[in-house]
Recover the amino acids of this structure.
């Protein structure tokens, strides 16, 4: 009894190159649907995660619009703009990777994924430059944080009482807390994304995936686009509060 | 479409392989459920030990059992953190949801078995960190981590606690993700949405809250951690921060979390009641949709925890009205369960005793919840023992009763063995009686004005506090008893058979314990759930009596 059922099971397991169907799925389509749906609900979790942060941003900005405007003037708008372009391009290459895997062109898929990872790394590089400049100007929150003199003066001008000034100065720092934290969490998501894209590209190269790995790459693509879209929200919220550029 | 290729089922049941490795690397939803059962049970008794010490301390008005008020603060914090994050939230969904949900919908496993196992490891890491805190210092903020005390002033291990809660949150998210995707994609042919057992509907609603609420808790505890580490004022008013924002973020998760704890209890009761009343559930669709309605409402009522926090009076009024609305779907459930009992052929086996106890205690908890949703009464009893009694009626009287009822109901399925019925009934009665003796006096104490979270109290409150502690000792007996007889039952031969309760539902049509892939062949569902017949039950009973007496 037992031996016969073992042979049956072995026979039921298809060769890896054809299809990699887990035992609890009926067919590949069901398995693929499950993976994609799982990724969508995971992204719902991620949306709520960033929503909490954007709520905090909204409240403090509503409390001290001027502090947030002044804080935003310290952002490097053009570096941010460049990074936005880089990230949008990486989404394009990601979409092309998905498409070429659907068409069964493995080599192209690998190269599009490598391109995606390179663009992602480029984004992080530019972000690192921005961070270093901000840290140099003592804008990293904590013990070394200093409100620049002209901003302190501007905030003093609009504050009626010393308490209000204290609040506004506090909110000026909170702007940077939120800036570093939200973009930091975003960068963390980028790092995870780059690592996974590279691993998947390597596996793809070795023909590890069943089919053309379309499901896996699609799910990865959803994640990548999500991280991209988060940046599309963050860039205007943090960098573009006031484009006139003056105090 | 070609016939689905069903891998042949290994003949052995899921418990056969005894190696440690086979357990630690398992992808089997049933084994993961059992792993969770063992871990949450340990945490339940850790949290229970803390509760025991608290009740001993509160037997006398003066602080005398514990070394200091500080120790008392740490103990009630640990009691809350352990019971909520490490026991109640994973209890039913991760144990019974994991074990039963795929079987109930005719699937061979959860959609993502490896994520499922990962969720247990994540839970374990968070839990061990929690134990670490317990041993090496503790936290004194209360399980709510209110700022700015938690972020600036407390000298305890708040950051570690925040990390621990953050980690455990991911376990909960993964469980929720699995439940949602499994329900969507792995239903057997013929298992339409309205043929799903209500257990599945309730778990689906729970999973929605887990997936959408938990990340907000994660973000709020991370911000507390950042504020402590970098000394920046996200929530500290001295640095321009807003402590109320923390409360908003925290309760945005932690109010829905109440429904993460109680919706699975509804799930269990909706299975037990029709089985032991031998009647189809009354108002199936109303119960199903009321679960979804509760999940939606749960996200709109968090402000009722903050009536005295200084939030706008108008916001308070709106939250008050919205909180009253939760009573509608909850009421629908209670009325439908009682309507199911009407003209049923009721048997009072242990699971049914727990389920009936649940209905009574949950109703008291729910009705006092309405009192608390009224602005004026809440201002009066805020932060008193009235609140403590209210939420224990929901969480212990509701969730823990249902968890125990579920364990008795499905123990034969999980282990293949029956528990001793007499001791089971005794435990149900002890828990019910002990619970009421513990927490009814606390309603009175709160109404009289005894504040919660105090080490010492005025002497006139002593009588009621002694009653409460006496009740707690009965309750402890009621909890220890099942631990003993469940473990002893494992030494017995497998005597349960596949369907000891004569219940409907796919899980009762397979062996006890189930085989690794649950079913031997393709599953086809052709009928509604809960096809019980009270008339047939009467005839069977009469026949049994006849055989018995002849």
């Amino acid at each position: 009894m037992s031996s016969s059922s073992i042979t049956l099971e072995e026979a039921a397991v298809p060769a890896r190159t054809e299809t990699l169907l887990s035992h609890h799925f009926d067919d590949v389509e069901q398995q693929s649907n499950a993976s994609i749906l799982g990724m969508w609900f995971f992204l719902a979790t991620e949306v709520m995660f960033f929503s909490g942060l954007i709520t905090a941003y909204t409240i403090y900005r509503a409390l001290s619009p001027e502090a947030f405007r002044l804080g935003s003037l310290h952002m490097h708008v053009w570096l941010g703009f460049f990074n936005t372009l880089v990230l949008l391009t990486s989404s394009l290459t990601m979409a092309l990777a998905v498409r070429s895997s659907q068409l069964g062109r493995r080599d192209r898929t690998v190269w599009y994924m490598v391109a995606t990872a390179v663009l992602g790394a480029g984004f992080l590089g530019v972000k690192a430059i921005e961070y270093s400049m901000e840290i140099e100007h003592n804008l990293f929150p904590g013990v070394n944080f200093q409100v620049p003199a002209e901003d302190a003066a501007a905030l003093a001008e609009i504050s009626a009482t010393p308490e209000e000034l204290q609040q506004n100065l506090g909110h000026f720092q909170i702007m940077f807390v939120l800036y570093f934290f939200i973009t930091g969490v975003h960068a963390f998501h980028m790092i995870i994304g780059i690592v996974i894209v590279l691993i998947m590209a390597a596996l793809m190269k070795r023909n590890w995936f069943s089919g053309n790995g379309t499901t896996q790459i699609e799910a990865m693509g959803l994640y990548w686009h999500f991280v991209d879209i988060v940046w599309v929200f963050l860039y205007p919220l943090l960098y573009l509060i006031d484009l006139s550029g003056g105090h | 479409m070609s016939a689905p290729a069903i891998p042949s089922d290994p003949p052995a049941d899921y418990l056969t392989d005894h190696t440690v490795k086979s357990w630690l690397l398992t992808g089997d939803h049933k084994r993961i459920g059992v792993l969770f059962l063992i871990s949450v049970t340990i945490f339940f008794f850790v949290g229970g030990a803390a509760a025991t010490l608290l009740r001993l301390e509160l037997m006398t008005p003066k602080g005398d059992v514990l070394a200091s008020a500080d120790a008392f603060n740490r103990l009630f914090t640990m009691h809350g953190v352990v019971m909520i994050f490490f026991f109640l939230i994973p209890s039913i969904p991760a144990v019974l949801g994991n074990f039963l949900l795929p079987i109930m919908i005719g699937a061979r496993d959860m959609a993502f078995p490896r994520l499922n196992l990962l969720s247990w490891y994540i839970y374990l890491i968070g839990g061990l960190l929690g134990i670490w805190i317990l041993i090496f210092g503790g936290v004194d903020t209360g399980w709510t981590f209110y700022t700015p005390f938690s972020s600036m002033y407390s000298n305890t291990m708040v950051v570690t606690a925040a990390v621990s809660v953050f980690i455990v949150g991911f376990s909960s998210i993964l469980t929720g993700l699995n439940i949602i995707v499994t329900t969507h994609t792995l239903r057997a042919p013929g298992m339409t949405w309205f043929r799903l057992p209500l257990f599945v509907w309730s778990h689906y609603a729970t999973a929605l809250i887990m997936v959408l609420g938990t990340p907000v808790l994660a973000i709020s505890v991370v911000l507390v951690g950042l504020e402590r580490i970098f000394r920046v004022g996200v929530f500290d008013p001295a640095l321009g921060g807003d402590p109320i924002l923390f409360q908003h973020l925290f309760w945005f998760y932690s109010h829905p979390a109440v429904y993460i704890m109680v919706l699975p209890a509804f799930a269990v009761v909706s299975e037990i009641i029709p089985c032991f009343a031998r009647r189809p559930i009354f108002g199936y669709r109303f119960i199903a949709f009321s679960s979804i309605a509760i999940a939606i409402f749960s996200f709109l009522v968090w402000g009722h925890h903050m009536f005295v926090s200084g939030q706008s009076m108008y916001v308070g009024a709106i939250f008050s009205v919205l909180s009253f609305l939760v009573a509608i779907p909850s009421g629908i459930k209670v009325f439908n369960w009682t309507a199911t009992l009407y003209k049923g052929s009721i048997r009072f086996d242990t699971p049914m005793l727990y389920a009936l106890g649940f209905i009574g205690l949950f109703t008291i908890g729910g009705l006092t919840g309405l009192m608390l949703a009224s602005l004026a009464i809440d201002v009066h009893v805020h932060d008193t023992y009235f609140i403590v009694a209210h939420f224990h009626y929901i969480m212990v009287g509701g969730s823990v009763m249902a968890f125990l009822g579920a364990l008795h109901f499905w123990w034969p399925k999980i282990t293949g063995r029956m528990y001793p019925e007499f001791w089971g009934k005794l435990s149900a009665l002890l828990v019910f009686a002990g619970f009421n003796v513990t927490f009814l006096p606390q309603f009175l104490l709160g109404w009289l004005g005894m504040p919660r979270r105090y080490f010492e109290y005025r002497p006139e409150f002593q009588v009621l506090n002694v009653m409460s502690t006496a009740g707690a000792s009965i309750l402890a007996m009621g909890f220890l008893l099942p631990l003993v007889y469940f473990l002893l039952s494992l030494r017995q031969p497998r005597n349960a058979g596949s369907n000891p309760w004569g219940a409907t539902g796919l899980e009762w049509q397979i062996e006890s314990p189930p085989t690794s892939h649950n079913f031997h062949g393709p599953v086809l569902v052709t009928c509604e759930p809960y096809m019980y017949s009270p008339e047939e039950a009467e005839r069977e009973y009469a026949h049994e009596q006849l055989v018995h007496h002849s």
